[in-house]
Amino acid sequence: MSNQPPYGDAQGQPGPPPEGFPPPTPPGQGGGATPLPDGPPQGGFPSAPPAGDAQGGYPNAPQGGYQSAPQMSPGGYGQPPADVVKPKSIDLAVKLMYAGAGLAVINIILAFFMKGTIKDKVREQLEKDNKSLDDLDTIVNSAIIVSVVVGLIAVALWIFMARSNDAGKSWARIVATVLGGLSILSFLGSLTQDTTTGVTLAFSIISLILAAAILFFLWKKESSQYYAAKSAPRH
């Protein structure tokens, strides 16, 4: 036998394989699989992130899901306007207006009960003016009819003014002021009439005081603020 090694030569070069084994594959050529190194790859696709780094869902997605839409601030556009508080001065003025309506109704009723008194006053006036008494009854009846019609109109105006001013209508306060001025003029005119009785004079004085009190309450500072707030445009 020879003393040479059975596989490979002395210089480290591989020799022929023993019988029954395939020849070894040179380095760098195809063949058996080469074990992967433990370090990071030098090229190609990046390695997958280690387990536990992803937060779930798509990468770079904000945590906590989508943000909710901004809420409307209280009192912003679209909110119903708050109810305007009605001052006490308006309440008092409205109550006095309803009292004026009641006073007008009483005045209508008294016109029928005072027919005899009115007739006597008219007769005195006709005799003073040297006029015929033939039309005495016609004049008295006409006066009563006029009193009833005017009284009904007064009742309607009192109620209409009460409701309109209670609602804060600025024009209603102006109309009430004009009517109050007419009431003062009517009172002054009644003082010059010879047909004025004690009862009608008393009613005229009460109406005058009532009108003055109503105008006082309607034009108070808090009342003016109430009318301004009610007349302000709503969105």
Describe the overall structure.
Keywords: Membrane, Transmembrane, Transmembrane helix. The protein has 235 residues and is mainly alpha-helical. The protein has a domain of 144 residues. Helix content is 53%, strand content 0%. It has six helices and no strands. α1 runs antiparallel to α3 and α1 packs antiparallel against α5. The radius of gyration is 55 Å and the shape is elongated. About 20% of the residues have low confidence.
Write the layout of secondary structure elements.
Elements (H helix, E strand, L loop, with lengths): L87 H26 L1 H14 L7 H31 L3 H21 L7 H21 L2 H11 L4
Descriptive key words:
235 residues, mainly alpha, elongated
In this structure, how is the largest beta sheet organized? Answer: none
Which residues form runs of ≥5 with pLDDT under 50? 7-12, 28-46, 48-59, 72-80
Taking the alpha carbons of the first and last residues, their distance comes to: 118 Å
How many alpha or pi helices? 6
In total, the number of strands is 0
